[in-house]
Amino acid sequence: MKAEILTILKDTDGYVSGQELCERFGVSRTAVWKAMNQLKKEGYEIESVQNKGYHLVKTPDILSKNELVSIRKTKWVGTEICYFDVTDSTNTQAKSLGEGDAPNGTLVVAGKQESGRGRRGRSFESPAGTGIFMTLLLRPEIEPQNASMLTLVSALAVAKGIEHMVDLPVQIKWPNDIVINGKKVCGILTEMSAQMDYVNYIVIGIGINVGNEEFPEEIKDVATSIYLESGKHVNRAMLIEKIWEEFEDYYELYEKTQDLSSLVKEYDSYLVNRGQKVRVLDSKEPYEGKAMGITDRGELIVDTWEARRLVAAGEVSVRGVYGYV
């Protein structure tokens, strides 16, 4: 009931009468009063005036299931929301749900991760109260070989979502790091469970540095936060909602063709690597060239002095980004 009350308060400019809420939910005035007090304890600033009712004055940066449900406008993402104040990893939780009967679009969100992971098993810094740590569970009817492109789809959604919240130039470092002013603000980790010709499920994990005011010495030259770059305190729940609204639109385009043919132009417009000299850390033989954009399948096009090469996997270092010169 608390999530529904929050939705009503947020959608109402003036006051909502206690009697109206009683009738709406079929509960007593005491039950409504208790719900309001619980919301106040969670940090919501709610004004109550006799003979007028209740009015939501201010919503602070609260991350909870009730908050996420109360602002949800997505069509299918977040049909089920699992929220943890603290968890090991949202990807781990989402994969566990994927092994069960959790529906497509289930969203896992945590206030803090204790075992967050990035690409190649690297640990991901996940302090409480400052970031967004979330994973989406998908059960798509796609060919397994087309799944990796969803990482790029997600990167577009995150970039666009951040742009909704702050006036900053957001870019993407291929394939999936979100960059602001040459520093990483977000990482994305996509994992899949599949058979030869069938996808059981896919989880897309997203970690965003939102309100961090500082970083450890070893990463401060390559990592940043939305707050550090904009000076603005961004509401994390609202940013989550904006990202998944954008994701649904991009995913619909991707799903029609199971490739990025309709998204290449927009992705390239965000690509910080484009036109830049890059070093491809190939496991056999590293090489350098100029990044030209991506293919319909999300491969990075790299022009070397001898040939045009396509990079489908691996790690790309970019000169001028992350401190590289």
From TrEMBL:
One of its GO terms (molecular function) is biotin--[biotin carboxyl-carrier protein] ligase activity. Its EC number is 6.3.4.15. It catalyses: biotin + L-lysyl-[protein] + ATP = N(6)-biotinyl-L-lysyl-[protein] + AMP + diphosphate + H(+). Residues 76-255 form the BPL/LPL catalytic domain. It comes from the Bacteria. Belongs to the biotin--protein ligase family. Acts both as a biotin--[acetyl-CoA-carboxylase] ligase and a repressor. This is Bifunctional ligase/repressor BirA. It comes from Roseburia yibonii. The lineage of its organism: Bacteria, Bacillati, Bacillota, Clostridia, Lachnospirales.
